[in-house]
Specification:
It is built from 8 helices and 16 strands. The chain has 374 residues and is an alpha+beta fold. It has a single domain, classed as Jelly Rolls. Helix 3 crosses helix 6 and helix 4 crosses helix 6. The longest helix has 27 residues.
């Protein structure tokens, strides 16, 4: 890392998100510090993220689908987050996956991970992110590893080689099971959202069948093991951000820390979801195509309030759902006069994420505009 990028990242501890607004491709008026600010942040203790039971969709016939779509759409329109229950995925799969995330990071050495350092493939930076190097604008206290569809043997490709993506190939089928189980939820969730908005529920069926996704393994080392005064040690576990996708599936983490910004009062919500449930949130792609109706909501991972939780690692494994890179993102016809012109998905994605990886991350024709979205 260059000295300039090191200074930029460390300065991100006190930076406001609005310093990077030129990269945004949807309207984001909220202003917040990228890092949590002990003693300064206000919290909303009354707001509850709505739970939506998918059993109504799967087993309740037309009336059940209508009810689920209503509940899901209302939750997402209100805050951009919902908690999915009754989704049919065995909680034991998530429990097993959490154990494997810890094993995956604790069994591999830094030297074994370095050959897999993240690099851009298509729209997404894929591979290993060392601690404090998730972005160039903030020293997150997390190690991450991003695997997209090409890293899994899901499509019967004859040339698939797990070793190209996994330092221990035996982990590929273990995590593939999670991706395959959640892939079955993509169309029901999107159809529910479209139904709520008054669109053709099947408008995105083709685009989201075997579509791109980013499956990220996050390993937050015990805070007690962070050396005092280390660079970025006061930077928080993961910066405040919005997801660059249609929506994200996050199996409920067992260790606290996830916080969501309520734009209506600019207070943070401590989100705690039941074990085995899935936290769902909408991202920038969704805000764009819904004409700002479903927001891409700010969230972060903060240090646990429970001292015992500081003694153990925290892991999470979100799955971000995209469309293919050459698909066009267009405002849905059921959402009124378009505020945004059509844009190719890769162009949209790299204009935004170059704030995390540097302007040279995007190719010249994908360079961010210096005009703020209105």
């Amino acid at each position: 890392m260059t000295a300039d990028r090191y200074k930029q990242r460390e300065a991100g501890v006190t930076a406001l998100n609005q310093a990077f607004r030129r990269y945004e491709q949807v309207r984001k008026d909220q202003a917040y510090t990228l890092s949590e600010s002990a003693g300064q942040d206000a919290f909303d203790e009354d707001f509850e993220i709505q739970s939506c039971n998918m059993r109504a969709w799967f087993e309740g016939g037309e009336a059940g689908r209508t009810a689920f779509a209503r509940d899901l759409g209302a939750a997402l329109e209100r805050i951009g987050f919902a908690i999915l229950t009754g989704h049919g995925i065995d909680p034991a799969l998530y429990e097993e996956a959490e154990v494997h995330v810890i094993e995956f990071f604790e069994r591999t050495s830094i030297e074994e991970r370095i050959p897999y350092l993240a690099r851009r493939q298509g729209s997404v930076n894929q591979g290993y992110f060392p601690i404090r190097e998730t972005t160039i604008i903030h020293p997150d206290l997390v190690e991450g590893w991003v695997f997209c569809r090409r890293a899994f043997d899901m499509d019967g490709r004859s040339d698939f080689a797990a070793g190209a993506f996994w330092p221990i190939p035996a982990y590929e089928p273990l995590f593939r099971g999670v991706c395959e189980a959640q892939e079955a939820l993509i169309l029901p969730v999107m159809q529910g959202i479209l139904r709520y908005l008054g669109c053709d529920p099947h408008l995105y069926d083709d685009r989201l069948t075997h579509t791109n996704f980013g499956f990220r393994l996050n390993y937050y080392p015990p805070i007690a093991k962070q050396p005092t005064g280390a660079p970025g040690s006061s930077g928080g576990r993961m910066l405040g951000h919005e997801d660059v996708d249609l929506f994200t599936f996050l199996p409920a983490p067992s260790v606290e820390g996830l916080q969501v910004l309520n734009r209506r009062n600019m207070k943070w919500i401590r989100l705690s979801a039941p074990p085995g449930s899935i936290i769902l949130n909408t991202g920038d792609y969704m805000q764009r195509i819904t004409n700002d109706r479903l927001p891409s909501t700010t969230h972060r991972v903060a240090r646990p309030g429970d001292p015992q939780s500081c003694e153990q690692p925290r892991v999470s494994f979100p799955m971000a759902v995209y469309v293919r890179e050459n698909e066009m993102l267009e405002v849905l016809p059921c959402t009124g006069e378009p505020k945004y012109p059509p844009i190719r998905a890769e162009t949209f994605h790299t204009r935004i994420t170059s704030k995390y990886y540097g302007d040279d991350y995007a190719t010249p024709d994908h360079a961010p505009r210096n005009r703020r979205p209105e």
